[in-house]
Each structure stands twice: as structure tokens, then as C-alpha cells.
Design goal:
Blueprint: E1 2-14, E2 19-21, E3 26-27, E4 31-48, E5 55-58, E6 61-62, H1 68-81, E7 86-93, H2 103-118, H3 125-133, H4 139-142, E8 147-150, E9 163-167, E10 175-181, H5 191-201, H6 205-225, H7 228-247, H8 258-272, E11 278-280, E12 287-292, H9 293-304, E13 311-315, E14 322-324
Helix pairs in contact: 1-2, 2-3, 6-7
The protein binds (3R)-3-hydroxy-3-methyl-5-(phosphonooxy)pentanoic acid (PMV).
Length: 329
């Protein structure tokens, strides 16, 4: 009853922001992302009678406080599989955890696949994304290869809110996301808390929801047509709209720090000068710069020389979650 899985992070081009059902994690809007090759989490899960409770070790550190999201997810898997054994979970990521870099996405995707396999369940990809979604919404997209869409769905039980690959990684291998790190520490407000506060208190949230379907259509088409300007410009505006809703909650949530703005202004300036790149940010200060392979070197050089930039990590469209036979313990 032991299995290991690997999953990549993903960067949302059209953001998931707000839940219509918090216990099932059903989103108010659909979202589209690129699964990022190069930013991954590997997780081994073993269920056994020898464990008195679930133990979670992330990057060599045992989590001591009550990790209710992870524990709740393990309970969900046990219930589905009809087993009682507790688990030892060991996980490693090769990028900063909880700094708006989608670590929860790769983490929950790898955890779900490993736990499902270790529990003896057999689920198809769609079922796996539905189960993963209940641990962390954005993680449902990390199950899928290349470019993924997580459908909002209409049903109250969430059975039509799943993620699927809309283009494989080989469809657009020149697409790049340069994660530009300006802060590695844990963020103060989690995306979960931030989106709840937005739904509850932002006067502009309806405007966000009203405009998302057009953004989804533009990015979906842009990916299929490999129209970089369409995808990049829509993604950038979508991220700004999401941040506009957070900034206008009570109390305000402002994830940006001076270096975030420095990068945003620089990207816009470079674009005016003919170097085509766009930015997007999640619930954190780090900026993800979208570009094509032809400009990757130049942009990496320019971004690295800006004040406050700690490092850049370049990602191309990557694989979906997969099993591995190299266990972590
Ligand atoms: O799935 P969560 O709770 O980590 O929320 C993710 C929210 C954003 O990263 C801001 C947007 C997204 O779609 O990934």
C-alpha cells in the first residue's frame, strides 16, 4: 500500500478566484493554465496499520500543526477506498512553498495520485481531477498535460467540475513562463482566505465574473491557434482584474511589493520597444512573465538585472501527473 507520484506546478492564464461551494471546492468561474515543466513535487504515500496517525513530511520537515486540508484529503481517499489505515506522507518540491508559486497545486496533485494508487483505487483522469479538486482547486489542473482547462460546472454535486488537457505539451513547445522570484517567504494571506474575502466583501466581484467567460474563450482559442499576443494580453489583463478585486476587499489584500511593480512596468516598457512579453501574478508578490522561446534568454537577462529579483525559473509546457517507482522512503 505504497505509491509515489510526481506532478508539476501550473500557472493560471485565466485565474480561478472564488468558490461557489467551499466544502466541495466548486469554483465561481472556469480557469485555464499551463502545466509547468521544471517546477515539480514528488510525493510518496504509504498506508499501513503500523501508523497510529497520518504523518506529513514536506521538504524534510515534519508538519506539526493541524494540517486540516491535507488530513481531510487523506480521509476522503480512505473513505473512497474503504480503508482505515493511516499514512506516512513524504513530499519534496524543487521550488518555494506557499509564496504564490502554485506549490499547493503540484503538492495536492502528487498527493492525490500517490494516495489513490497506494489505497488500491483505480480512477480515470477525469475522476482524478475531481478528487484532486476537493483538496485544492488549482491542483486539479496539475493532473493534466500541457494546457489545461478546469470547467466551472453547473451541478451542485460537482461531478461536472473537472479539469482536462485542451492542448498537449508538444502543441506549443515554444511557450515559456519565467517565474521571477522577488520573495521566497510564506505569504500572509492564503489564496483560500483571499478568495473568500473577495467573494464576501468586494463590490467589483460581479464585474470579474461577468468578464471571465470572454477571457476563457480568447485564451482557449489563442492556445489552439498559437496566437501568443492573444493569450498573453488576455492573461495579463485577467491577472490585473483578479488583483483589482483583492485590493478592494475589506480589509484590502495587496500582495505586490515594489519589485513586483518594477517588473510589471519593465515588461510593459520592453513590450512597447518590441520585445513581446506579458506578466501574470497569483496570490503573492512573484511575477510570472510569459514569452516565447525566441525571447527567453534576453528576458531572463533583463529580469535578473532588476532590483529585488532573487532568481528566475524558466518553464515550458510540461507533463501531467504520473506515477514513479522511485519511492522517497
Ligand atoms: O487552489 P488554490 O486555493 O491554491 O487557489 C489558487 C488561486 C490562484 O493561484 C490565485 C489562481 C489559480 O487559478 O491558480
Amino acid at each position: 500500500m505504497k505509491a509515489t507520484a510526481e506532478a508539476n506546478a501550473n500557472i493560471a492564464l485565466i485565474k480561478y478566484w472564488g468558490k461557489r461551494n467551499s466544502s466541495l471546492i466548486l469554483p465561481c468561474n472556469g480557469s485555464i493554465s499551463m502545466t509547468c515543466d521544471g517546477m515539480h513535487t514528488k510525493t510518496t504515500v504509504e498506508f499501513s496499520e503500523k501508523y497510529a496517525h497520518d504523518t506529513i513530511i514536506i521538504n524534510d520537515e515534519e508538519l506539526k500543526k493541524d494540517e486540516k486540508d491535507i488530513l481531510g484529503h487523506m480521509e476522503r481517499v480512505r473513505k473512497l477506498a474503504g480503508i482505515k489505515e493511516h499514512a506516512r506522507i513524504v513530499s519534496e518540491s524543487n521550488f518555494p512553498v506557499a509564496a504564490g508559486l502554485a506549490s499547493s497545486a503540484s503538492g495536492f496533485a502528487a498527493l492525490t495520485l500517490a494516495a489513490v494508487k497506494a489505497a488500491g483505487l483505480s480512477l480515470d483522469e477525469r475522476e482524478l481531477t475531481i478528487l484532486t479538486r476537493q483538496g485544492s482547486g488549482s491542483a486539479s489542473r496539475s493532473i493534466c498535460e500541457g494546457f489545461a482547462e478546469w470547467h466551472r460546472g453547473q451541478k451542485v454535486d460537482g461531478t461536472d467540475s473537472f479539469a482536462e488537457s485542451i492542448a498537449r505539451k508538444g502543441h506549443w513547445p515554444e511557450f515559456r513562463m519565467l517565474a521571477t522570484i522577488v520573495q521566497e517567504s510564506k505569504k500572509k494571506v492564503s489564496s483560500r482566505a483571499g478568495m473568500k474575502q473577495t467573494v464576501d466583501t468586494c463590490p467589483f466581484y460581479k464585474g470579474w465574473l461577468d468578464s471571465v467567460d470572454a477571457d476563457l474563450q480568447a485564451v482557449r482559442e489563442g492556445i489552439l491557434e498559437k496566437d501568443f499576443s492573444k493569450v498573453g494580453s488576455t492573461a495579463e489583463q485577467n491577472a490585473l482584474k483578479m488583483h483589482a478585486t483583492m485590493m478592494t476587499t475589506k480589509p484590502a489584500i495587496i500582495y505586490w511589493i515594489p519589485a513586483t511593480l518594477e517588473i510589471m512596468h519593465s515588461v510593459m516598457q520592453w513590450r512597447e520597444e518590441g520585445l513581446e512579453a506579458y506578466f501574470t501574478m497569483d496570490a503573492g508578490p512573484n511575477v510570472k512573465v510569459l514569452c516565447l522561446e525566441r525571447d527567453e534568454k534576453e528576458l531572463t537577462k533583463r529580469l535578473s538585472s532588476l532590483d529585488g529579483v532573487i532568481k528566475t525559473i524558466s518553464c515550458r509546457p510540461g507533463d501531467g501527473a504520473s506515477l514513479s517507482d522511485k519511492h522517497l522512503f
